[in-house]
Design brief:
Elements lengths: L2 H10 L5 E5 L4 H14 L10 E7 L6 H15 L3 E5 L8 H16 L4 E4 L4 H13 L4 H4 L5 E4 L2 E4 L7 H10 L16 H16 L3 H30 L5 E3 L8 H14 L7 H12 L8 E4 L2 E6 L2 E6 L8 E3 L4 E3 L6 E6 L3 E6 L2 E6 L5 E4 L5 E2 L8 E2 H8 L3 H4 L4 E4 L2 E5 L3 E2 L5
Parallel strand pairs: 1-2, 1-4, 2-3, 4-6
Antiparallel strand pairs: 5-6, 7-10, 8-9, 9-10, 11-16, 12-13, 13-14, 14-15, 16-19, 17-18, 19-20, 20-21
Helix pairs in contact: 1-2, 2-7, 5-8, 5-9, 9-10, 10-11
Length: 430
């Protein structure tokens, strides 16, 4: 199988108008860069091929700066534009997971519309990915491993080397006299992937020469079976998920456990989340779906939170606690915390008009200091013909989910609540 012609065929099957190559400087991505440079020279067999590369500086190795220089020299040689992005790696969920998350989030910032990310994963990587999924107890979705084209972190990804072994890439690199870097951490068997690569898989390949190809077929069978399940459940899934971040629970509790977990996996996959373990899915069902009716259950999944409100599940970001936040309004524009945007004020002869997102409220002018707060408990008169009511009841009546209630700007004149912007204003007792 010829590397160049195979990749050329794959590119013709994509609708991408540009390709962003993830370049570490190691053997695999150096070969990938060289192949794209060659393809770009094969005009007019391909339409104008827009190629860029990106190198992520994780700051985890003492050699990281020299790797940047190597990638710069390599891209200069091939006349391919290079982006250098430095990231901070969170070690909360382990260095491997933190580096991967930081890497893809950094790449996502640079990926352009109708551009496709290209990674240098090969057949040996596929075997490692399958074994890691097996170790985690993954189902069909995880054991389906990597596909040549997929979506990850909301980005379209092409893996054109997936049918080729590392030894085939080494042969190509030696033939082309390519130079590449070696990451010293690849020898550290404390990392699961390295342990498999260095200790376990070489013995299996020594025993069974075509082990990687056989495993790839198994991974493809798992992927196809998962696709079949998705197809069979597609109509019922559409009834539960009409809005991407919301999953309706009507009738859900009557389904078998297998059907429940399958539908939840489909929902999480639609939101490009990594698949939780079977134990985590059981927790989501028991602790969130089946929690008592008056509870406010939630489950943290990586950097997202699954919440329940009015018989639906919602997928949200992790939010900061703003209940003690108090901001004095001293200019016409006030920057709100936790990505809530800006609150702006315009005034006319008698009134102040407050704008936030797509909402606005008009209040009378005041000589009192104006504060923006996010937490309030107590009774409020929000209707001229109704008595004061507990604010919790008002939020319920307005259908505002519990986690959103402390994210809506509350306007105070001094210590007196005047309005929740876009939702209600407070009426005078008189």
């Amino acid at each position: 199988m010829d590397l160049l012609s195979d990749i050329e065929k794959q590119l013709k099957q994509t609708s991408a108008q540009g390709f962003l190559i993830a370049l570490s400087g190691g053997l695999d991505s150096t070969v990938l860069l060289s192949l794209f440079a060659k393809l770009r020279q094969k005009q007019p067999h391909l339409p104008a091929l827009s190629v860029r590369a990106i190198h992520i500086h994780h700051g985890l190795s003492p050699n990281a700066d020299s790797w940047v220089q190597h990638c710069q020299d390599l891209c200069a040689q091939f006349q391919i534009p290079l982006i250098i992005e430095r990231v901070q790696v969170s070690k909360t969920n382990g260095i491997e997971a933190g580096a991967r998350e930081a890497r893809y989030q950094a790449i996502k910032k640079h990926l352009q519309i109708q551009e496709m990310l290209v990674t240098a994963h090969h057949l040996n990587d596929q075997t490692e990915t399958f074994f890691l999924a097996l170790k985690r107890g993954s189902g069909l979705q995880g054991l389906g491993a990597m596909q040549q084209q997929s979506v990850l972190f909301g980005m379209p990804i092409l893996r054109p080397l997936l049918d080729f072994t590392r030894s085939q890439l080494e042969d190509y690199a030696q033939k082309e006299k390519l130079n590449w870097i070696t990451d010293e951490s690849n020898e550290d068997n404390r990392y699961d992937r390295n342990f498999l690569r260095n200790e376990i898989l070489p013995e299996l390949r020594k025993r069974w020469a075509h082990f990687d190809l056989s495993l790839q077929r198994s991974a493809q069978h798992c992927f196809e079976q998962q696709q079949l399940i998705n197809d069979l459940l597609s109509e019922i899934f559409a009834e539960h998920c009409q809005i991407k971040s919301q999953f309706k629970l009507c009738q859900f509790r009557q389904y078998s456990p297998a059907k429940q977990t399958a539908l939840l996996r489909m929902w999480l996959a639609k939101n490009q989340l990594e698949m939780p373990s079977k134990r985590q899915l059981t927790q989501i069902i028991n602790d969130v779906v089946l929690a008592r009716e008056d509870a406010n259950p939630q489950f943290q999944l990586v950097n997202k939170v699954i919440r329940r409100y009015q018989d639906s599940l919602y997928l949200t970001k992790q939010f900061s606690d703003l209940t003690k936040c108090s901001l004095k309004l001293e200019q016409n524009t006030l920057s709100l915390p936790d990505d809530l945007g800006n609150l702006t004020v315009q005034e006319n002869e008698h009134n102040l008009i407050f704008y936030w997102q797509d909402y606005s409220v008009t209040l009378e002018k005041t000589d009192l200091p104006i504060f923006i707060r996010f937490g309030y408990s107590g009774k409020v008169k929000h209707h001229s013909k109704r008595p004061r009511e507990d604010i919790k009841k008002i939020w319920q009546e307005l259908g505002v989910p519990v986690w959103e209630r402390n994210r809506i700007p509350l306007i105070f004149y001094g210590d007196e609540l005047k309005s929740a912007v876009g939702f209600f204003r407070v009426f005078d007792e008189s």
